[in-house]
Specification:
84 residues
């Protein structure tokens, strides 16, 4: 179980870092090296920034829902008393 949680944490860390840094990479890639009549850079940057914002909002909602479910379904500690 511990290995699974570490792998899951790594997956979500990688997905989060990709969502954070992908706009700069994509906007750099779509920046034409020469001046042309039509450039898609502004549209691409806007779309990727909107995507990045939605990923962060979705991650926050997922985090809050996960915490709420963990609180609801956590195991209660059973107090065992010994008879004298």
């Amino acid at each position: 179980m511990k290995t699974f949680l570490i792998v899951l944490f790594g997956f979500f860390l990688g997905a989060t870092l990709t969502a954070l840094f992908s706009p700069s990479v994509v906007s750099w890639y779509f920046d034409p090296p020469t001046a042309i009549g039509v450039s898609c850079k502004e549209a691409v940057v806007w779309g990727i920034n909107a995507y990045q914002k939605m990923v962060m909002i979705g991650g926050a909602f997922g985090l809050i829902a996960g915490i709420a479910l963990a609180i609801i379904f956590r195991k209660k500690k059973v107090v065992v008393t010994q008879a004298p």
